[in-house]
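Notes from the pairing session

We agreed to fold both candidates in a single pass and log them together. This is the raw record for the first candidate, unedited. Please don't reformat it; downstream parsing expects exactly this layout.

Candidate A
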Amino acid sequence: MKMMKFYLLSSLLLVFPLLALCDDRQVYIVYMGEHSGDKTHQEIEDNHHSYLVSVKSSEEEARSSIVYSYKNSINGFAALLTADEAAILSQRNGVLRTFPSHNKYSLDTTGSWKFLGLEEGIGNGRKVGKSRGSEILHKAKYGKDVIVGLLDSGIWPESQSFHDQGLGPVPERWKGICEEGDSFDSSHCNNKLIGGRFYVKGYETDGALNRSNDYRSPRDKDGHGTHTSSTAGGRSVHNVGALGGFAHGSASGGAPLVRLAMYKVCWPVHGVTLQDGDTCYGADMLAAIDDAIGDGVDVISMSIGGGDVPFSQDVVAIATLHATKRNIVVACSAGNDGPTPSTVANTSPWILTVGASSTNRDAPAPVELGNNMKIKGESITPSKLKNHFYPLVYGGDVASPHVNSTPGQCLPGSLSLEKTKDKVVLCFRGEGTRVKKGAEVKRAGGAGMILANAATSGSEIIVDAHVLPATAVSNDDGTMILNYIQSAKNPTVKLSPGKTVFDDKPAPYMAGFSSTGPNPVYPNIIKPDITAPGINILAAWSRASSPTGLDADKRRVKYSFESGTSMSCPHIAGIVALVKAIHPTWTSAAIRSAIMTTATTKNSIGKLILTASGKEANPFNYGAGHVRPSKAYDPGLVYDATYTDYLLQLCDNGDGQVDPNFKCPEIPPTTSDLNYPSLSISNLNGSVTVKRTVTNVGGNGKAVYFANIDQQPEGFIFEIHPKILRFSHVGDKKRFMVTVKKERKTTAGEYSFGWYSWTDGIHVVRSPIAVSSSV
């Protein structure tokens, strides 16, 4: 599971010669709202420069200090400033706020779309002729002419997933470019990949890009951006699979005829190799989103997580609010810091925040112990051991005595060559990356590896194309193997090669790594919003990178497995593109509502979705539930919201200074009153009544909906008034109230969950409730 690091430019060591001796300077964002539309780009840049001249000693210093001038929608600039200079600018007329880009954020497919029922002629894993899954594809014309912009690590344009055969000309509304750079020129764009830009100025204030580690262009060396792009909107490609032939089949993105545009904002961590992850800088991301808005994208997909920072310092939140105002739907990953509570990222209500769950595909590779016990394992490692038993050892027992390392973690340089040679080593996840543990066992001469989950990962098993024969097992099974090693005189093991199996039940379950609520920034907004496949997803890959990303791994692949909320996010972006193609006039909020209220909380055997540890999942794990594309385009009712509604929500949270043309009322509505498809009430003492408005978007317009209380939150009770809503036409709006009361004593701060729905006999419009008490 890979997550890219997104830095908002912390304590920078400046490389600009003019500023080499000024250690107290760093990049600040000077935010001024948005443009009025009556100035040219040159006039905007001159205006920004005039602000800098007022705090700099010369014109030359002012010019050299600017990093970005945001000219399309977002009004403001990024510049190298001292704290005093930033403070002076914050008091200037027209400046809403200045803030340093100082917080760290994180970058956080053959079978997954079939599992979601979104494949031609496929429904629920069986051939059924024309299914509802194919119906949405037909109605949406496979996403034709919808433009999806991705902020990521770049793209490998030669991948078959991005060919443009049969696609018509680029939509006339497209204003973007194909920016040239290292190994990338205008010929690499086509009628599928219609644009590519890269943003490196913010990154390079912390040191120049090492061009042996990455391309100074939209080209992807890492693989992450290629993977997410093909997941969202890759063309259908037949006869593909991972190394060793695993998951062989036809690969396709969710909306295979969308147009793609790559905005490369993520780069290798300074001072380390590519395998140690990428970082994405706030000033660069703000510039990319500003350009994406100006270029004409319809959907933005960002597999980039964040921290629990307030809106006033959250570059992603500020930029995406501008995108949402223009009805651009923004999907972001929830983060990979689960299952710890309150770790969810991208917490703003105008963002569709995506958790990660499993598919029904498995890669079983049994582990047979010398005592005849067989344990379930999974493997996609192409190299295989001979079909006999090998000596089995625990990584903590074969560690070098001179290395200070966590026992059993098999960290680089920790294993003894003498004790490890020709043995299968049991290693545990925790510190360090999974693939580096395999590389360490190989370095020490081991024959193979069993990689057991850490205790927090539960039964979820993530597979990798390791550099030696390797099998992954759950934490419980890893503990069982360890007990066998410690009790047997001469422990041995036989590792069977993996194979691809579909219809593994029950599915989905929530990934243990998927970040969870409650929302650390806005407790009265449930996050994440939705979950989608994010475990062991096969998609296109960069030919410049191995499937492990390790320097020593010289293998190259066209398609590779990856896991993370980075993988689930583009699934939702692809579905958003299909809904947008069918309903081009719907607002961003309406599309997000349609996806959320049609989700399911049931798995493939009709039971409640579980977590990786086997417990019942809840809205803090999956939001409204697991996405159902076949339902999303016809939700019946939607919860709509406007730009002004979001500004009022910010007023309630003390962040009212966002739009210079908007003034917060003395008593703004509470965040719980935001017309959101889910409902959260924190610190309730007594009772509260909140408002919701639904808009009819179904059928011929005339409809009668009845309220259902599907589940009351434990310790609380809620009622809905009125219980019947009558609609006379499409677009008709009706308001209702939800009154929530504390029924009995509960633990302060502990949340309970409930569900309510509206149904007309055809549509079911379902919403979760989360409630906690203050006493």
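Candidate B (folded immediately after A)
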Amino acid sequence: MDPSEEPWASSTTPTSSSRPPSPKSQKSQRSVKSSRSARSGQSNRPTEQTPLLARTDSSDDEDEAEPQTSATSSLLQSLNGSTSGKTPLWKRRWPSILALVLLCIFVILIMFGFLASEGIEEYAKQASDFKPTKLSLDSLTQHGVKVQIEGDFTMDASKVQKKSVRNFGRFGTWIAHEAETGATDVQVYLPEYGNILVGTAKIPAIKVNIRNGHTTHISIFTDLEPGSFDGIRNIANDWIEGRLGHIRVKGKAQVPLKSGLIHLGSQYIEESLVFKGNDLPALPRYDITKLNLREAKDGIKGMGADVSIVVENDFPVQLTVPPVSVDVLVGGCQPSDQHIMVGTAETAQMNVEPKTNVEVNVTGHVESLPDSLTTTCPHSKKSPLDWLVGNYMQGEDATIYVNCCKFPDASTPDWARDLLKDITVPVPFAGRDMGSLIKNFTLADVHFNLPGFFAEPGTPEAAPRVSAMIKVVIALPKEMNFPIDVDNVLAKADVFYKKKKLGILDVPKQKANSTRVEAQGKDGPLLLVESYIKEAPLEITDDDLFTEVVSALLFGGKSIMLDIKAAVSVGVDTPIGKFVVREIPAEGVIPVKPNVTGPAIGHGNGDGGGDSIGKLSPKIGNLSIIGTSPTSITLQAYVNVTNPTNYSATVPYFNINILVNDTVLGQATAKDILVHPGNNTNIRVTAVWDPFTNSGAEGKAVGKELLSQYVSRYNTSLTLQTHAGTIPAQPALGSLLSKFPVTFQTPSLATPKKPSDDDPEGPDKPKDEGSHFIREATMHLISSTAIFTLASPFSTTTLYITHLNATAYHDSQPSGKILYDLPIAVPPGLSDTPRLPVDWSLGSVGYDAIKKALGGTLKLSAFADVGIRIGQWRQDIWFQGGAIGAHVRL
């Protein structure tokens, strides 16, 4: 510091502030003073009349002259001996000398008092400011690292809170001007971790300007030596795992200090700092810009990975990181379990620049997966690999662990290897929602298996089962550039309709195959997975919703969309081996078409939509009676029916009610039938006709009326309707389908003939337009008898007419009447009745018409009350026939 720059700089100040002046110097001073006394009259030059403290200013670097008062001028004149008198020189100057000495001592005492007091410590803590501009790793040494630290040191008095300390500190540092520390060692300890030594920094001498507002640029090299390796690793692991809520750091140093030529001795410094919450540094943010999973190169077994990561660097750090190799691990079954190693990763040498993002290129390698990774966890159905892949494919952050560090470069010091080994860093990476990657999910060749008769409701055996070919097209992530083959699948899927859960589809383990389709343009590769699921149980959980689905299919005439949310387990074959990935989330939409392509039958409109029930078009033929009781008759028939859907079904047992005008008259049962899309022929059905047992007296009356109209060739129809016992193991399904009854025309009676695809009705056509039951009649006038030719619809059963009360008409006029109470057998095929006595209506118009037709043929009509019997079953009916061809003979 140049003395001429300071307001109190004088030739006597340095000596008086250090030690008493020597005689030689005193003589010199007197000579100088005499010379100055001789020039005391020149007021424009600095003399002893110049005030020692001209003014007090906020700036420590500029001084301005102030006007002198008369008192001040008089005092100075008396001190410099300008008064006239005869007093000796030393007597005249002793006040000046005494004042100057006292002032110097006073200033020195103030400065040392300030430096030795707590005031300077408080001022130094609050006013000092160091901003690092560069931190670079210069080189690795055998015991640590040599680091270059650069930064700017500034004293800012405005940051000091107390005014007295601020003013006193500015005054003291303005006097001291500079401070210098000698070379020292700084030890850093962690009191809460057993007071372990973290490390030692060897700091060289540093000189700084400590005056307010001045900035000193510092550039030093320091050697850093780590302390306890185990302690450093422990605190590093606590920080990485989030267990470090705060940390207290204590530093110790013996620092030699001096200011200018004044040595302040060695100062023992011990300081503790507590870092809490956000004060603790966090792991730097990073972004994975490239991920390429591939098959290992150069004939190496396994799978490789190329990863590019951009790491944010907000610190003024410059260093060169040597090549590093790390182990890649994943979590075990429990958080407390030891991590499982799956592969290794390496980085090349990296150069880190201050406050510049760092691009890290990583090459990984996985040779094979350990058994501990693919083995299911206790009390669980998943393995650690399942949890990892499941989280990733659900779009959740998955976590891998990096165990640091190995250094392939042999020149890396041993202390670096020992310090960084066994430090594990969790690395989260964002998942991919695989649901959005499913491009297509379809079911083809769908086949339904209904439960058997003996299956107990509510048991797994009672659930309907679905067989189908599943086809899933998956858009693979672009990062997956290695061969993958899916060889089996297992899934449990929730089925939804209009966002409401319809049921659960449980797909057992099935064989599968996959085909990779390479990328086209900007699109990534595709993977087509096909698997035929066989008899997967379908549990209906919402009967009302299922009713809505069936109704939409049968009557809506349009496809419906079923949403599938499944947990899929797949067996895959990859370059790192075969393993199973369980419960991968998958979503898809299955369009369900209501009917097959083709013209509508019945109520349809011919465009593939409309009422699908009308397209069933059931046809019944080849009736045969296989059993009777006093109230029932059991029949067997062959049925042709059209399945209007694209789906097939196996029906072990199916029972359905037969109704007329909402009155149950019997049941039909089918067993072990296979229904496929389109026309199904020759389905054998057994029907029990028992109106009285099913509906009592009302049923008996309705049954009589139906049979009477039927044999009289009226247009009649039957209704088929399911019930709770239709599928014994699925009463809810039967009740549900009962809301969709099927009504069809009663099949005509005919000579037995199996129906064919070309002629689904299968009956013989009547030879005339008369009743299909009475083919013809022969009237004998002289004997007053008649013979009728009858056609039985049964192929093996003889029908008996137990009694007959019939009247013949011509043009609505009675011609004759037959009363007969003896049984008449009607065997299969065509047969003639015995001669039946006729009571002619003599004189009537009808009888005259018969006589006129003698030798020819006459069309007659008839009405009769008839009793019939088949085995044990008996039934009274009425019969009305028209246009019966009657031959008239004598």
